[in-house]
Design brief:
The chain has a domain of 33 residues. It has 3 helices and no strands. The longest helix is centred in the last third of the chain and has 30 residues.
C-alpha cells in the first residue's frame, strides 16, 4: 500500500510539473523566398509575321519559292531584331545601385550595349 501511495504521489508530481512548465513562445520569422518573375510581358512580344513562303502550295515551282523567300527576308530580319531587343532587355537588367566611387570611369564597368 505504501508503494502504491508513493507511486501515485510521483505520478501526480510529474503531471503537475508538466503542466507548470513554460510553453515555448512562437516566434514569427520572415523568410525571403525568390519568386521567378517573367521579364517579358505578353504584350511586348511581337506577333510572328505572315511569311509568303508558308502560304505556298507544295507544287509551287522553284522560282516561286525563291521569290517568296526573297520577299520574306526583310520581314524575318525585322522580326528577329525585335526579338533580340526584347531578349537583350532581359539578359542585362538595369542595376539601380550606384557604382562605388572611382569605378564608374573604368571601361570594364561601362554599361553593355
Amino acid at each position: 500500500m505504501k508503494t502504491r501511495t508513493v507511486c501515485l504521489l510521483l505520478m501526480w508530481t510529474a503531471l503537475v510539473a508538466g503542466c507548470a512548465a513554460d510553453r515555448p513562445v512562437p516566434v514569427t520569422q520572415t523568410v525571403n523566398v525568390p519568386v521567378p518573375v517573367p521579364c517579358v510581358s505578353r504584350e511586348s512580344v511581337p506577333a510572328r509575321p505572315n511569311y509568303e513562303f508558308d502560304k505556298l502550295q507544295l507544287s509551287a515551282s522553284d522560282g516561286e519559292k525563291i521569290l517568296a523567300l526573297g520577299r520574306d527576308w526583310p520581314r524575318g530580319r525585322a522580326y528577329e531584331g525585335e526579338l533580340e531587343a526584347i531578349i537583350a532587355a532581359c539578359a542585362y537588367p538595369v542595376d539601380p545601385r550606384p557604382l562605388p566611387t572611382g569605378l564608374a570611369d573604368t571601361p570594364q564597368n561601362a554599361p553593355r550595349r
